[in-house]
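Subject: sequence -> structure tokens, single chain

Hey, anyone have a minute? Need the predicted structure for the following. Not urgent.
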Amino acid sequence: MQKLKLLCGVLAAFALMVTVPAVAQSQPPGEIEAGFDIDSGWVRNHARQRGVIYSKAIIVPQAAWLRLRFDDVKLGSIRGKGQPTILRLTSLADGAEQRMNSKHVQQWQNTSAYFNGDAVLLEIVADPGAAPSRVLITSGTVGATDLGVTDSICGFIDDRELSTDPRVARRFPSGCTTWLIDDVNHCFLTAGHCASAMQVVEFNVPLSTGAGAPLHPGPEDQYMVDPASMQTNGGAGIGNDWAYFGCFPNSNTGLTPYEAQGAFFELATSMPLSQGQSIRVTGFGVVETPVATQWNWAQKTHTGPLVYIAGTRVEYQVDTTGGNSGSPVVDEATGKALAIHTHGGCGSGGNSGTSVLHGGLQLALANPQGVCALDPCTADLDGSGDVGFRDILLMIGAWGACGDCPEDIDHNGVVNLGDILMLVTAWGPCG
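Reply:
Had a minute. Here:
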């Protein structure tokens, strides 16, 4: 049977052209390159039990944080049996640990997670009889304090408050914000000018140091971006600045970001008709005196009025600073995300974002890539290896509100036309 396809297209609207100063609000944190000379050589486990076969403390005095870059990693194993050989990295400041097998190293593009403090213990752990392993490291990045602020506070006082929204994360080291959405695999939106490679997404971010240097959550809350999933226009100005992407499952827990966080934003399907209603922006902007330096790059939130919507440009008087780029712009009345925050400019009217109804973004959402794409076998409800009419009947039988039911393919709590359309796109043999 010929596979059916859903055809969709949304025309992009022209953004309003106005002559107010605006600045993209990414804020890369201070970091410097560090050189290392670490070579484990070829090592293997000659003991009778699984254990550590190489150990090295990597120290950069006074660094706020460390991230390692692997020149080469070879992790030997016993084919067909035993546990995989892993790298185990542990912060000597707070004990945070990351475990990486060969697949994880590839997904993380030969880099580690971020570790707080100035010292990390590097270990190779292997089974007896596993093939030889080796790790080579000649460089990495370390954190330095940088309190440079590019802000747009709507008034004389920064009124933002600390927040802990589980849906909102920090992109590092670009110094941007990103957030989980209601697409089929609960991937992310952020600003297009934040969509550089080699990014890590961090949830449950702690407060910064007393000097304002960013600290990091444990590796269990850090996720590497899947480059194959990235779709973006790269940031083409106010009202035209978006990116849609996903992350690999966590190398420690095996959970996706949504599975770990358990929440996401629903995207608006229409824009408000009136001005003045309450808008909320939540993100990881920087701070300046008199705000406590520990709030630097920590999650904060603020509300203010909607100023206007023109085409795909959304403007609002809500406090933001550098680091807020990519934040969700949320209608407080509905709880739905209206836009992606991208530019400051409150000194001349309001801060600005790109509507979630932007035609290019909608086209990307309709055609997810990489880890954001639907596994066709998710729609194989009867387990036959083929998506067909029996699966449609099962879906109709579960129509309406449901809990965690397999017929709710898009996981929005309701079996409806959206799930039928996803099933149709997966029509035919799967697996």
